[in-house]
């Protein structure tokens, strides 16, 4: 089984000009690493138009609509670190964008892990300031 998070799924110090670009980058990483097919990105953008995936604390978790589930090949997470932040609607600034794709309802488990990790402001700061991809993987693996 393919790991949910690898160094290939992480982009450090990304520079994006807007929310849509951030979502597309999170989706592109999932596509390039074999978690979803290209159509899933369209479903991620669609989900965002329905309801914002901004979670507060500089965190956004874009994911596809229920319809997009058929575009998921295997569960995975992409992490886009945007230290300078990107406007994410309604004056919110996202500095970390987690793209998620959960096969067979695994998305709830993925969301839960991210929520637990990001519930501590100190962890969010560590994610925003991480200098290596391994740091992010270690942080993520600390969550049970």
Describe the structure.
The protein has 5 helices and 5 strands. The chain has helices spanning 19-32, 39-50, 107-118, 121-129, 133-142; strands spanning 10-11, 54-56, 59-60, 76-87, 93-101. Strands 1-4-5-3-2 form a 5-stranded mixed sheet. The model has no long low-confidence stretch (mean pLDDT 95).
Short key terms for the protein model shown above:
144 residues, single chain, alpha/beta
Shape: globular
Distance between the termini: 19 Å
Radius of gyration: 14 Å
Detail the poorly predicted runs.
none
Question: How do the strands and helices of this protein lay out in sequence?
Answer:
Blueprint: E1 10-11, H1 19-32, H2 39-50, E2 54-56, E3 59-60, E4 76-87, E5 93-101, H3 107-118, H4 121-129, H5 133-142
Parallel strand pairs: 1-4, 3-5
Antiparallel strand pairs: 2-3, 4-5
Helix pairs in contact: 1-2
A few lines on this structure:
With 144 residues, the chain is α/β, with parallel strands linked by helices. It has helices spanning 19-32, 39-50, 107-118, 121-129, 133-142; strands at residues 10-11, 54-56, 59-60, 76-87, 93-101. A hairpin with a 5-residue loop joins strand 4 (76-87) and strand 5 (93-101).
């Amino acid at each position: 089984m393919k790991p949910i998070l690898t160094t290939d799924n992480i982009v450090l110090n990304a520079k994006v000009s807007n929310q849509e670009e951030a979502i597309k980058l999170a989706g592109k990483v999932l596509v390039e690493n074999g978690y979803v097919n290209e159509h899933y990105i369209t479903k991620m953008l669609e989900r965002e138009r329905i309801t914002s995936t901004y979670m507060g604390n500089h965190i956004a978790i874009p994911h596809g609509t229920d319809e997009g589930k058929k575009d998921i090949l295997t569960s995975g997470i992409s992490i886009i670190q945007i230290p300078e932040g990107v406007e994410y609607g309604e004056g919110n600034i996202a500095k970390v964008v987690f793209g998620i794709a959960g096969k067979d309802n695994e998305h709830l488990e993925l969301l839960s892990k991210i929520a637990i990790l990001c519930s501590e402001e100190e962890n969010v700061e560590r994610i925003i300031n991480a200098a290596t991809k391994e740091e992010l993987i270690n942080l993520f693996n600390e969550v049970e």
